[in-house]
Amino acid sequence: MNDSRSDAFRSDPSRPLRPDTRAVHVPQPAVEGSRPITMPIYQTSGFTFDDPAVMAESMGRPDGAYVYGRYTNPTVRSLELAVSGLEGGAAAIATGSGMGAINTVLLALLKPGDHLIAQSSLYGGTAAMLGELTGRFGITVTHVPENDPAALRAAVRPETRLVYLETISNPMTLVADLPGMCAAARELGLVSVVDNTFATAILCRPIEHGADVVVHSTTKYLSGHTDVVGGIAVFAAQELYERVWHFAIELGASAEPFASWLVARGLQTLALRMERHCSNARLLATRLAEHPAVAAVHWPGLASHPSYELAGKLLSGFGGVFSFDLAGGRAAGEKFMSSVRLALLAPSLGGVETLVLHPATTSHRSLSAEELERSGIGEGTVRISVGIEHPEDLWADLAQALA
Fold it and tell me: Region Disordered: start and end of each range (predicted)?
């Protein structure tokens, strides 16, 4: 049996190790002449060295030898390389959650007194964090429409550092003018950060449209099975990646090996799943738009949606998440969500099962009434993450809940 620890655990062969010592130092088989089909889970907190100089050098380099789990790990690095490759980036940093990825980037690139520009319609967790940045660090935020480069230019100040966008906004599915907004940001010397969770790299690759950083909640579509929490930030340039990496290892929002392995496994079926998510969403959105109990449907694949034309140019599919407004307001929304049988009332999105929730009281509960109105979220707004079940079964469930 080949063994990378065939030096008898670095012990003196004339002095055999006692059982309690051998139990600690488990032999590690070397893989020679073949390789595993899937990435193994390197479930270790750190790595051992023979050369102290190599260890010391690796502590300060993202491309050095593996040192400590908070820096990275072979399984985590495999995920980082995979998602970076999908997005067309130079490098990536995997984190313990989607908010971990967002906060790592924002906190690494901003300092007290800075100013950032964000689109008006945002995920509730991101909006809440921007409020924290203002309250704790005096970092001011200006909101502009997601498709208005002129408004972005008009909002710039000497202390502006960053522009924050979502490819498809949560939950109103507004599509950002990534080419226009990212070009304006670059002209003004600003870093552009794009949350691509709803679209994934299958539907859109923001770096190709000028984005500097792309973030994902890997909890969602990338893993796709509602069994892991994670995040990732992908960087267009190596220099910006290294700048954030040095901060990230001190922040400690690192991904762990098993979660990274689960996400990497989910990536293998991402393209297939996204095709089904999008086709199911089309059927449901189209039928809901014709239902008398529904006042409006917010899905960019409908001609009535304000982002319809832009979405057709920018996206290769319109996504599997959308929202709709019930004519009966909040009471109708609560009745609907308590009446679904196949769809599940639950947070999160992007899994193989269909989920529904009420944004005003869940994902966007931290927003004020004014902020909810600005985002287009009403008391009767329901968000649905369409799964990969048979579409007619899903429609039968929604129809009986609406009846």
Answer: 1-22
